[in-house]
Amino acid sequence: MLRGLRPEAARVTLNSHVAFVDLRAQTRALHPALIAAIETVLSRGDYVLGDDLERFEAEFAAFCGTGHAVGVDSGLSALELALRAADIGPGDEVITQANTFIATVAAILAVGARPVLSDCDEQGGMDPAAVEACVSPRTRAVVPVHLFGRIGEIEVILALAATHGLAVIEDACQAHGAVWLGKRAGSFGLAGAFSFYPSKNLGAFGDGGMLVTNSAALADKVRLLRSYGQRVKYVHETTPMNHRLDTLQAAILRVKLPHLDSWNYRRRRLAASYMERLGGLPIGLPWAEEDGRHVYHLFVIDVDRRDELRAALASDGIETGIHYPVPLHRQPALAALGYREGAFPRTERLAERSLSLPMYPELPVDHLEHVATSIRHLVEGWA
Length: 383
Ligand SMILES: *Cc1c(COP(=O)(O)O)cnc(C)c1O
Hints:
Aspartate Aminotransferase, domain 2, alpha/beta, binds pyridoxal-5'-phosphate, Aspartate Aminotransferase, domain 1, globular, 12% strand, 11 strands
């Protein structure tokens, strides 16, 4: 109906497709440097635990402001090895948030500990009060998730953890480069875990991850754990597992890392533009952050009739996402944790109402305008 009233808008709509994320744009811009980096690895042939991996670890540690960084094969592995190296296992409880990607909880399960879920705050991040209520004599660690790219109330979590003697392991898999209180995401707790899944703020050409820490002892344990527990070849000191990051992926990530801050800056500019264009509508927007604590891995709004809006945007050629449609405590795979529906009202409300809009550093401004205009027309049409 709205489209019938606006034939010009309808024509634009028919011709344009707005992708949720387009990874090719970044690759195109860096193509010669990426090819050169790959060629270098091919010419050296050091595919496993090679030179570019060591260099990338040093560069990523410097970027995060931590003493150490250890490359691993995924964000999940970074979380799992951090917990394992902190000696967390069967009989222990680890508190995290119900509103996160399954990997956070999968890592806790992988070491044999019990994940204890807490409800999120209104932005989907960790709520310190909800965490405090979950602390028991068995609690050993807390895993705050810098969800969507925003560092939450980490200083409160750190204080709470210190009071109760808990390790803090940050799930920074969506927050590469975010800065809060003068520190980077991942550098606040005992360890920080990053994912280099292709669509993350820093993405590889496949899977990859990194653990950062200021503890030399923890870094040493993770180095052992990621490569069959061996310091000396064929001598296996600890749990034998293979979670290494490929030299090729490290070489690619080394080309990208120097651009991360400018890409995040671009994400923040796009977020500000969305917020300006969507202001005044009955839509929940992310809190405006001018200090870099939010790097907008995702730009998530909160809206009534979300599914209707999503379908209407799809018919306007606009891809959107939902993070996350089924909260963890409602996942069949986690039924054994015994949580019931209604246990985490804020998480459940967001699962029904949140919508992630197209967001990546190279998102063309006319795409963003098209998204904002479509939302405005549709939502105003509901009034
Ligand atoms: C992507 C992600 C992970 C895990 O990443 P993988 O590299 O896919 O294992 C963990 N936690 C959060 C919040 C993520 O978004």
